[in-house]
Amino acid sequence: MGLPVVLVHGLRFSGTMWRPQQEVLEAQGRRVVALDLPGHGVRRGEEFTLGGAVDAVAGAVDAVGGRALVVGLSLGGFVSIAAAAAHPGRVAGLAAVGCTARPAQALAQVYRIPAVLLDRLPDHGEAVNERFHRLTLPTDGAEAALDGGLAMEAARAVIDEIAEMDVLGALGAYPGPVWLINGARDPFRIHERRFLEACADGRLLNVPRAGHLVSLDQPENFAKLVADIADVVWVRSGRAVEGPPSV
User: Fold this and answer.
1) Is 93 helix (H, G, I), strand (E, B) or coil?
2) Considering only Cβ atoms within 10 Å of each terminal Cβ, which end of the chain, N or C, has fewer?
3) Any residues with CB less than 8 A from the CB of 121 and at least 6 apart, and which?
4) How far apart, in whole angstroms, are the C-alpha atoms of residue 8 and residue 182?
5) C-alpha 57, offset from chain centre
6) What would the mean pLDDT of 119-126 be, rounded to a whole number?
7) To the nearest whole number, what is the mean pLDDT of the chain?
């Protein structure tokens, strides 16, 4: 069965974005949870706070046995880093994906102004975002990403919360193994070396020909990557798995 996996989605998305990986991992007999953060998915309408998001991750880890590999993309990556720092005993390993840019710069400059402009539209820009993702993602990836809805209304609260986060300090506070994963075409790679230097036990992986939403750009490759990381962490923790890990 191996190490359980908790998957944490990006801004505006929900746990459905992880469907391609969840299906593969569960078919391997792994315990997997793809949660919805406050203000997203089935929790739309709730206020997003970083503390509430960290609590959601900790609850998901408890639901799969109390210790897991935590994988988060973009917003989910920042939340997962915060959760690892707050609950190192629960987070056996961390994969922080598409989030190696300091939040104050990445979120405040890249997201804040578009979020204000989109808020002026009747649907807060949901139709524009949905059209963009259908045009830029593989069909299966787009369907998975959009099935849980797009929580456009959550963006400003998320930006306000995450922009104040000391992400490098949180990374340094987590003693466990960290994988920093980026699509090679992801503009959020700008501080990846600083993030790597902040890790107590880190490594950096760049996925060729992938963008920011690497798990949706290359769903099969990313599922294999998560499985391999889970096996490595499982072995390093002194547990046995069926067959050798492939990383």
Assistant:
1) strand
2) N
3) 128
4) 15
5) 11
6) 54
7) 88
User: What pLDDT score does 211 carry?
Assistant: 93
Q: Which of 20-24, 50-54, 151-155 has the lowest mean pLDDT?
A: 151-155
Banded model confidence at residue 105, pLDDT cuts 50, 70, 90: low
* Closest-CA residue to 137 (of 212, 222, 34): 212
CA 172 centroid distance within chain: 18
Instruction: Give just the sign of the alpha carbon dihedral 213, 215, 218, 221.
Output: positive
Which tokens go with 245?
Answer: 């890990």
Q: What is the pLDDT of residue 244?
A: 38
178 closest CA partner among 108, 119, 99, 95? 95
Segments in 163-204 forming alpha helices (H): 167-173, 192-198
Q: What values do phi and psi take at 30, rounded to 5? A: -90, 150
Residue 43 confidence (pLDDT): 97
The mean per-residue pLDDT over the stretch 38-61 comes to 97
Query: 66-69: long-range contacts (C-beta < 8 A, 24 or more apart)?
Result: 66/90, 67/3, 67/4, 67/91, 67/92, 68/3, 68/4, 68/5, 68/6, 68/31, 68/92, 69/3, 69/4, 69/5, 69/6, 69/93, 69/94, 69/95, 69/226, 69/229, 69/230, 69/233
Which of 17, 12, 13 is closest to 222 using CA atoms? 17
CA dihedral 183, 193, 115, 9 (to 10 degrees): 50
Residue 242 scores a pLDDT above 80: no
Coil vs helix vs strand at 40 = coil
Taking 80 as the threshold, does the pLDDT of residue 126 lie above it?
A: no
